[in-house]
Amino acid sequence: MTARSTLAILALATATARADPPREDGDSKALVATGALVMLGSYTASVNVAGMSDVHTAPYLYIPLAGPWLMLAEWPRCDATSPACDHSSNADAMLVADGALQLAGLAMAAYGMYESRARKPSALHIAPTHDGVLLYGRF
Question: How far apart are alpha carbons 68 and 63 in whole angstroms?
């Protein structure tokens, strides 16, 4: 696959995504649930690591969202040539992934809540009854 065909596929996918009809409330609820699950799952992993670790900065992991970033800022740095510090880059990557997952989960849940409240379409209905007309709606 060439670069041009990849770009064409991405452009088509983006255009298709924009042309989709508005989502139903169930989709927003699923987005909130998925975001909460991602956030809580990654935060639970942080709490487990904080409870088992003997590193002096591990208690930062008890703080949701900010904990992984605080621990990363306070994490001892090693010289890249030292063989004893091979674990440092792995730990850095895990802290970044944990912080990113917590942030992504929160963003998904917040966006799902925003979508469910922001998009309440107005609807006006007229229905015949046995003694007249019924007019009802949602605004």
Answer: 8
pTM metric for this prediction: 0.62
Rounded to whole angstroms, the Cα distance separating 75 from 61 reads 12
Specify the DSSP class assigned to residue 21. P
First CA to last CA across the chain, in angstroms?
50
Q: Which domain holds residue 25?
A: 20-138
Distance of alpha carbon 1 from alpha carbon 32, whole angstroms: 36
Count Cβ neighbours within 10 Å for each residue of 86-97 and write b for 16 or more, e otherwise: eebeebeeebee
Q: Determine, yes or no, domain membership for 133.
A: yes
For 130, the token pair is: 């046995």
In a domain, 10, yes or no: no
Q: With respect to residue 2, please indicate whether it lies within any of the assigned structural domains.
A: no
Can you read off the two tokens belonging to residue 86? 């091979």
Report the chain (139 residues): mean pLDDT per 10 consecutive residues.
46 46 65 92 93 90 94 78 66 90 93 74 72 71
- Kindly calculate the radius of gyration of the chain based on its CA atoms and give it in whole angstroms: 24
Count structural domains, the chain: 1
84 located within any domain: yes
